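note to self: dont lose this again. the chain is below, predicted strucutre after it. 313 aa total, dont forget to put it in the shared folder this time
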Amino acid sequence: MNTLSKWFSPKGLLWASVVVACITIALKTLAWYLTDSVGLLSDAMESVVNLASAVFGLMMVTVAAKPADEDHPYGHHKAEYFSSGFEGILIVVASLGIMWAASHRIFDPQPIEQVGLGLALSVASSALNGLLAWVMFRAAKAHRSIALEADARHLVTDVWTSAGVVLGIGLVSLTGWLWLDAVVAIGVALNILKEGWHLIWGASQGLMDEAVESDVLAQIHTVLHDLSISHEEVGADHVHIVRFDHLITRKAGQRRYVDLHMHMPAEWTLGRAATLRANVEHALMKAVPGLRASIQLLPNDVEAHIDDPLDVA
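---
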């Protein structure tokens, strides 16, 4: 792996997120210290959450990259969901803390000082977060990394938080209504609370073996449809047809899994059937990078019963 690829890997970008979080914490804390704005305090608090999330995400990406072993024969890919869920929980906690701090300021508003310098520091830190989020979204799509996507979403939330704070402080300066600072902080908290819940829900669905995305499922069906048609053979007395059914999918971090049954003429040799199965697996993995296919071979006149009696009411 060359140096550029290393830095744009999930681990490299999460290290970058740790560094950027430290820089933004320093900038936003200084902005809050100079202005005494509860809105900027809420912004600084969220950056602390960014740092904790990036560190935990880095740990989970390292675990997810481990190869399969005797205790984890399917690998460690689901570790990334813990990162996403942990980040969501931290966001929720931060939003509640922001609302608690801001609620006191509604009834006891304080003047804001050195507004220009404070806002400049906040804008500079937001620009760093926005740039990193843009890079991480692109990398998350390329690597199919939920940890990167979660961190990028959090960074985007941080950018919107800062934008709301800047707007609120600007309105306070224009109108003289000091209570607007606290109202904006509460609005920011509600916004990041929504994002936190989104991350927690997404992580829970991943841990529950959620099916693959609709576009990935469509690609799988397209490949199988093309192969079922391409293997029709007209014989002297009848038509041999290869067909697929009982298709189920799941995703685990960067991996995608599909299980299905492939039916074929009973008179085919095992060698011919195995060759076709290998071709189907290759076609599926080529169409969907990172996919792992498990295909059970069955004669055309046999239907498998896959229901577990314990699952039947």
